[in-house]
């Protein structure tokens, strides 16, 4: 009787293990990478970073969203974009809330400790922005003690801390840039040159200060132990670049190719 009890126990344990495996949303598929939802590429962005990712008429749109949709298509997957606050977006990836971040997250060595990154899918520069009528701030040195608007956990936060001890945190770069035009609210904002110029073109009374402080490399991020997924995304991205699809998407949103930049003398953010 003891042997039968042991056998039944082992069978039940095996069934529980199989059931657990069947419910594992990140179980490896035939291509060797894991997805949180079978047949879909679930990718995250803040949804607050116009023109890269933002909501319009209740739907996510923007450059990042189109890049993500095209990558998913080439992987024979359904695109499934979701939003997550940028300050916790990396933690959400580690916690398996989504497969990838396609939300203008720049590669850094620190972030690479938690995630695996593809090649860059565009380049941008970190730039200081002030109100159009601000003639006091003309260089980074002029920001000492000034109130700087910045996104928490962004690549702009640490440089801002080095320039001033008076930071105002935002969840949206666009809102921060808008606050530059409100008297006595902010002295400066540090954000992407592309986002700043887009806001300026849309009527924001702001101007840039000097040249970009550095060049950063926004890339697709996946979980560190899911490098086969990273490689598949990289392959799809390279195909887009090679056949001109990337160029079409970039021209649509910006009137230029965001990968077409001279990096010879550029200071790359790492």
TrEMBL record:
Coiled coil: none annotated. Residues 40-257 form the Solute-binding protein family 3/N-terminal domain. InterPro entries: Iontro_rcpt_C, SBP_3_CS, Solute-binding_3/MltF_N. Its main location: other. It comes from the Bacteria. Keywords: Signal. Residues 40-256 form the Ionotropic glutamate receptor C-terminal domain. Residues 1-19 form the signal peptide. Belongs to the bacterial solute-binding protein 3 family. This is Transporter substrate-binding domain-containing protein. It comes from Sporosarcina koreensis.
């Amino acid at each position: 009787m003891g042997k039968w009890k042991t056998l039944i126990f082992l069978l039940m344990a095996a069934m529980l293990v199989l059931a657990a495996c069947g419910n594992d949303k990140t179980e490896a598929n035939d291509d060797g990478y894991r997805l949180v939802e079978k047949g879909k590429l679930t990718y995250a962005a803040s949804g607050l970073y116009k023109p890269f990712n933002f909501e319009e008429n209740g739907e996510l749109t923007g450059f990042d969203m189109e890049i993500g949709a095209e990558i998913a298509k080439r992987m024979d997957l359904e695109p499934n974009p979701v939003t997550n606050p940028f300050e916790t977006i990396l933690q959400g990836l580690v916690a398996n809330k989504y497969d990838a971040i396609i939300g203008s997250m720049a590669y850094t060595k620190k972030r690479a400790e938690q995630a695996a990154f593809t090649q860059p899918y565009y380049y941008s520069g970190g730039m200081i922005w002030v109100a159009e009528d601000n003639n006091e701030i003309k260089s980074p040195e002029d920001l000492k003690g000034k109130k700087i608007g910045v996104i928490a956990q962004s690549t702009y936060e640490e440089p801002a801390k080095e320039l001033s001890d008076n930071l105002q945190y935002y969840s949206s770069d666009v809102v921060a840039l808008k606050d530059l035009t409100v008297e006595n609210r902010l002295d400066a904002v540090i954000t992407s040159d592309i986002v700043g110029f887009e806001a300026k073109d849309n009527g924001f009374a702001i101007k840039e200060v000097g040249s970009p402080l550095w060049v950063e490399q926004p890339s697709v991020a996946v979980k560190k132990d899911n490098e086969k997924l990273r490689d598949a995304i990289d392959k799809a991205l390279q195909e887009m670049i090679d056949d001109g699809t990337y160029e079409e998407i970039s021209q649509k949103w910006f009137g230029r190719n965001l990968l077409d930049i001279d990096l010879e003398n550029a200071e790359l953010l790492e």
